[in-house]
Amino acid sequence: MLRIYICPKCYNFRMVSKRPDAICLHCGNKLDICNINYVDYINMTQKKRNEFREDYKRRVMLYAEKMQHSDQEKSESTFL
Ligand SMILES: [Zn+2]
């Protein structure tokens, strides 16, 4: 069974057959698993895929922002 993965760095999709160490062929980054199944992915139009990618991008950026904020909070609390 193929799973759909996406790269958190260059946002390329990749189909991978059950492997825990899925790596992006473009940048070598560790891939994130998508919550879309293979059949749905195959039936997706290019537009749908782009929408999914944009949505994923937004989530990655939000997550990165959140991590930055928690880092700041940590360094601020060391001054107390
Ligand atoms: Zn990549």
Query: How many domains, as an integer?
Result: 1
User: Which class do the helix and strand fractions yield?
Assistant: alpha+beta
Major sheet: size, sense and barrel closure?
A: 3 strands, antiparallel
What's the shape? globular
- The overall pLDDT, averaged over residues, is 88
List the strand order in the largest sheet. Answer: 2-1-3
What are the bound molecules?
A: zinc ion
Assess the beta-strand content as a share of residues.
15-25%
Reading the helices and strands in chain order gives EEEHH
Secondary structure tally, helices: 2
State the end-to-end CA separation. Answer: 53 Å
**Which radius of gyration do the C-alpha atoms yield?**
16 Å
Helix content: 40-55%
What oligomeric state is this? single chain
Provide the low-confidence segments as ranges.
none
What's the count of strands? 3
